[in-house]
Design goal:
- By secondary structure, this protein is of the alpha/beta class.
- The chain is built from 8 helices and 8 strands, in the order αβααβαββαβαβαββα.
- Helix 1 packs across helix 7 and helix 2 packs across helix 4.
Length: about 270
């Protein structure tokens, strides 16, 4: 099927219209879908929780502080993004010694889209999680085939090519308890990753899609609605990354755990 032509209306167009109209259609379509869903559901899809609203107890706070220190120690930006609060909560409800997979390790190859610069050392998050939970399996995946991190299995995955995710299952775990997308950050790559994760997350596991920017929220509100009638419970968590100078970023969180009902029960006000 000729997927890349879906945004071309079957009508006569001038050459100027061929340049402008497809882009306009691409930009309008997610917004139009959101409006349609709100009409069908007779409600708003705007309810988003802030990271301070996550359930907290002594253990989750302790874990958040521990993880924040480890993120700083290894030089990942997860603390400056306020993600340590989210991970502190998640680890407080995860099974002991969880099997962890992070997709997107921070390539330092300038030829790779969304690289972290030539001086970056890939796999910082993997090292943080491994020190936090030494008995855990902590695997990684990236489009950069040259990445290796001592003590961790690294798999080749191109997030824009769903067939490459088979490298994880063939060489890693059939299921993981925590799957993280910190890769390309484009909506298509994130959606392909979510599709893979939904098939390979454990019954009590959590999926996190990091670094969703405000302009992409319309897509993730649609995804959240699509999952609302399934066995999955999900929401968007708003954070205020220091590096973004006050502009919010969002994390999509999804779980098959029945305990997630309490966290996500008000997701469609």
């Amino acid at each position: 099927m000729d997927y890349y032509r879906w945004y071309f209306p079957p009508a006569r167009m001038t050459e100027e219209q061929k340049l402008k109209l497809p882009l306009q259609i691409v930009l309008r379509t997610p917004v139009a879908l959101t409006r349609l869903i709100e009409t069908i559901s007779k409600g708003s899809l705007k309810n988003i929780i802030e990271y301070e609203e996550l359930p907290q107890n002594k253990q989750s706070i302790h874990f958040a502080n521990q993880l924040g220190d480890l993120f700083d120690k290894y030089g990942t930006d997860k603390r400056s993004n306020q993600y340590h609060y989210i991970y502190g909560y998640i680890f407080s409800v995860l099974v002991p010694n969880p099997r962890i997979l992070e997709i997107g390790l921070g390539s330092n190859d300038p030829a790779i889209y969304c690289n972290m610069g030539i001086n970056y050392s890939p796999g910082k998050s993997l090292k943080s999680f491994k020190e936090f939970s030494p008995q855990s399996i902590v695997d990684g995946a990236d489009i950069d085939k040259t990445i290796s991190v001592d003590g961790h299995r690294i798999f080749y995955v191109d997030q824009t090519k769903p067939e490459t995710f088979s490298n994880i299952i063939e060489n890693g775990e059939l299921e993981y308890d925590l799957i993280i997308d910190d890769g390309m950050h484009s909506p298509d790559s994130q959606l392909y990753t979510l599709e893979f994760a939904l098939k390979h997350i454990s019954n009590n596991g959590y999926i996190l899609i990091e670094d969703i920017h405000e302009q992409n929220l319309v897509i993730w509100k649609i995804v959240r609605y699509l999952l609302s009638e399934s066995k999955y419970y999900c929401n968007l968590i708003k954070t205020f990354p220091v590096s973004m100078k006050g502009r919010p970023a969002y994390v999509f969180i999804c779980t098959t755990n029945e305990n997630g009902k309490q966290l996500f029960q008000n997701r469609f006000n």
